[in-house]
Every structure is written in C-alpha cells, then in structure tokens.
Design goal:
This protein has helices spanning 7-20, 29-34, 36-48, 100-112, 140-147, 149-154, 172-182, 186-194, 208-217, 240-251, and strands spanning 56-59, 65-70, 73-78, 84-86, 120-122, 129-135, 157-163, 225-227, 233-235. The protein is α+β, with helices and mostly antiparallel strands. The longest helix has 14 residues, at 7-20. 31% of the residues are buried.
C-alpha cells in the first residue's frame, strides 16, 4: 500500500475536479497485461486512493519507477506500487527537465477541453501564436492586459479568454463574468467590464463555473494566468513585445 503523504489530499482534490468535468480515463488494458508492474501500480492506487483514476501509467527513464498522469498532474510510483513521489525529474547529464514536456502537454489538453466555442477570443484564427488567459473581470493586471489587446493582436498573438473569478463561484466577479458571457456582444461587454463600466446583469447558460474548475485543476494562484501555445504556464501580466519575443523564440521564429 502507498505510504501516506501530504500529496495525497492534493491528488484527491484534483481528481474530484477531474471527475466533475467528466475527464476521460485511458485504461490501456493491453499495456497492463504486458507489464505486471503497471497492474501492480493500478491495483495499489485503487486500494490506497480509490477515487484516483490515472489517465496513463508508463515506465519512466529510471528503472523501477513509473510515470502516472492524472489530468495535468504527473507523479511517480515505484514498480511494486508501494511508494508515490511528486516532483520533477531532471537528467543530470544533459540538464533536461524530463517531466516538463509531459506536464505542458497535459496543460494544453486541459485548456482545450473547454472548447473555443466556450471562450471569448480576440485576434484572427491565422495568428502566429495563440495563448489562453484565465482572467478575472476586476483584477488590475487583467485589465492592464486587456487595455493592450490591440498590441497583442498586432504582435501576432491571439488571446483566448477563460473566466477565473478569484473570489470563487457566486462572487461579484463571477456574476460579472456571467453577465459578460450573456451579453449580446460578448467582446464589447468584456472590454466594457474591464474598463470599469457597469454591465446589465444577465444570466444564461454559461461556462464560467467550468472555467473556474479548470483553473482549480491547473492550480492557479492568481490572474491573469497565461497558458502559452506550448503548454507552459506564465503567471501574471507580460507586455506584448516581450511576450512576442518569448513565443517567437520557442517557435524558432527569427
């Protein structure tokens, strides 16, 4: 049985959100049958953390240690299923972070699960870069970012907004997000709300609570929170020119 760790509560909380969002679970039965260690790990996890349903279990670069993905979380479990470890794995020879690429891919998967039809998007579809921004209507740096939207778009950056009212579901900021979504012109309503204008209070079917749960799944600590097109998460405001340089460098654009 896996030893109790302070990570357990975080995993259980994260998984509860995952299940609420209806995230898919990949059982990989053929792989399980081919590798008895995976069967042992899955059985041990089911016993110690019965609500935890891994998306994948794969051998890690370290013999006897397996990578377990649950949503955007990556943990490592020993082949005998007795020990669970959290943290990042680094190749000391190359200095390469071996965990980061998997976590970035998982971040993209989580954000894309919202669907662009449930986002408010500024910028053309053929923009050079697309970033996803969790935003709070009343956050000062969120407003600063939005006030420079023309600069982001001119820099070839398309911005996909998801709502993350920091005060939580049912708060004033949450209600403002709902009103923005339910407005006849959502983009204009977003701009008006972020400039401090009072919107007509409206309700309708909306994705605001789902976006908030996605932010919880990603362990957001504040807003704005950017998920770049390679899956890296950047907390806080980044000016358009600096963000463009970062994105171009990652994409190999000269």
């Amino acid at each position: 049985m896996i030893k109790s760790t302070r990570f357990t509560n975080a995993v259980q909380k994260m998984l509860a959100i995952s299940l609420l969002l209806g995230s898919s679970v990949v059982m990989a039965e053929a792989v399980d049958q081919a590798d008895p260690a995976i069967q042992a790990i899955r059985a041990s996890l089911a016993k110690a953390l019965p609500t935890l349903k891994p998306d994948s279990i794969d051998p890690s670069p370290v013999p006897g240690l397996y990578e377990v993905m649950v949503g955007p979380r990556l943990v490592y479990v020993s082949a005998d299923g007795k020990y669970l470890m959290s943290g990042e794995m680094t190749d000391l020879n190359s200095g390469e972070n071996l965990s980061e690429p998997k976590m970035r891919a998982a971040n993209i998967k989580v954000v894309n699960s919202a669907g662009e039809e449930n986002m408010i998007i500024f910028g053309p579809e053929d923009a050079k870069h697309t970033i996803s921004v969790f935003t709070d209507i009343d956050c000062g740096y969120c407003r600063k970012l939005h006030s420079e939207m023309d600069a982001y778009n001119a820099a070839g950056i398309r911005v996909r907004y998801l709502f993350y009212p920091r005060a939580g579901i049912g708060s004033e900021s949450y209600n403002k997000g709902v009103s923005v979504w339910c407005a006849d012109e959502r983009k204009q309503a977003m701009t008006d709300a972020k400039s401090g204008k009072k919107l007509e209070a409206k309700t309708c079917p909306n994705p605001v609570s789902d976006h908030y749960q996605l932010g919880q799944l990603l362990s957001l600590r504040g807003t704005p929170a950017m998920v770049l097109d390679d899956g890296e998460m950047i907390p806080g405001y980044v000016p358009a020119n600096r963000l463009k340089m970062m994105l171009d460098e990652r994409a190999g654009v000269k």
